[in-house]
Amino acid sequence: MKNILLKISMSLLLVLFFSCKEDPKNAEKEETIKSAVSENYNISILIDLSDRISLKKNPNSTMEIYQRDLGYIKSVSEAFTQHLKSKRMRQIDDKMQLFFNPEPENSEINSISKDLRITVDKDNASKKLLNSINDTYSSKTASIYESAIKDDKYIGSDIWNFFDSKVQDQCIDKGYRNILVILTDGYIYYEGTQMKDGNLSSYLTPQLIKQNGLNTNDWQKKFDTGNFGFTKINTDLSNLEVLVLGINPSKNNPFEEKVIKAYWSKWLSEMKIKHFEIKNADLPSNMDKIIKNFVLEKE
Q1: What is the per-residue pLDDT for 8?
Q2: Is residue 59 part of a domain?
Q3: 76: domain range?
Q4: Residue 7 dihedral angles phi and psi, to the nearest 5°
Q5: In angstroms, what CA-CA distances link 288 with 185, 212, 235?
Q6: What is the mean pLDDT of residues 238-264?
Q7: Cβ contact 160:231 at 8 Å
Q8: Strands of the 200-201 sheet, one edge to the other
Q9: What is residue 51's DSSP assignment?
Q10: Mean of the pLDDT values across residues 206-215?
Q11: Out of the domains of life, which is the source (predicted)?
């Protein structure tokens, strides 16, 4: 009888031992999940308010460019709030903000953009605030685009200068996962920032691509051997992730999309940005999953 009881006791001990023993893979997975949940986000959205959004110059019968932008911003905002709601209130210390470069002359637009600089931390986090973020971003960004289109004064897109003089200070904070979402057709042009050094330039237009002869089947070879691209910015932005949305190449050159992406990829890589994606303009419903996967780090 004693032997039987001893065997039963030993069996129970073994079961308890193995049930308590942690599977290394599961432990690693749980640690990754905990890390992602507790991570603090610093999301910046840079809007290109050039004439790409003009209803007169670039009408789109399927869905206007500005409406697509608003859909992309909605997805970013929803991903941000989804991240916030996955954290305990005391862990929350996250930010989301919106930029233009150059700033529009319309004071109303600049005033609205200030309301879109949101900081949520343990002191102000509440269900009411978290539930209001998506509606705030949707309504106020819609007002920005409507005002810009109504003004009909498009002064260009100085994304190169934004990276050169503002990204480091305004979009990167230590201890945060820094994400910059750029809404642009891929072209960059601002009258006040035009630099050229050989085949490198601070701007990119359909005319420049044609002028550089990057509109033929051997464009890649010419791009590489001729050292084409954006003017280099000697800044280490390895603590920044970039998602470029809305690439909309001219239909006059079948290689235009690839050339635009080559310019951007080379430039972002030179600034030591390891995680970036460059996506074409598409319907917001098609882009929603892509955007949220990038922001929430889902494969």
Answers
A1: 46
A2: yes
A3: 29-190+236-296
A4: -65, -40
A5: 18, 35, 31
A6: 97
A7: yes
A8: 196-197, 200-201, 229-230
A9: G
A10: 96
A11: Bacteria
Amino acid found at 136? T
The CATH number covering residue 49 comes to 3.40.50
CA-CA distance, 39 to 29, in Å (whole number)?
15
pLDDT at 16: 45
Mean pLDDT within 54-63? 94
For residue 27, how many other CB atoms are within 10 A of its CB?
A: 10
Q: Which residue bears the tokens 């959004």?
A: 53
Nearest CA among 164, 85, 99, 178 for reference residue 130: 85
Give how many domains the chain has, as a whole number: 1
Q: Residue 144 has what pLDDT?
A: 95
Looking at per-residue confidence, does 38 or 149 come out higher? Answer: 149
What is the average per-residue pLDDT within 256-284?
A: 98
217 located within any domain: no
Q: Are 203 and 190 in contact (CB under 8 A)?
A: yes
What is the separation of C-alpha 42 from the centre of its chain, rounded to a whole number of angstroms? Answer: 11
SS3 content of the chain, % helix, strand, coil (to 5): 50, 15, 35
The number of residues making up the chain comes to: 299
Give start and end residues of each alpha helix (H) in 21-121: 24-38, 65-85, 107-115
Residue 12 lies in a domain: no
Name 131's Cβ contacts closer than 8 Å, sequence gap at least 6.
Answer: 81
Query: Model confidence over 178-205: pLDDT tens digits?
Result: 999 999 999 999 999 999 999 999 999 9
Radius of gyration of the chain (CA): 24
Residue 250 tokens, joined: 């001219």
The confidence score (pLDDT) of residue 38 equals 59
Average pLDDT, the chain: 89
* 226 within domain boundaries: no
Q: What is the mean predicted confidence (pLDDT) over 201-213?
A: 97
- Whether 190 and 158 have beta carbons less than 8 Å apart is answered as yes
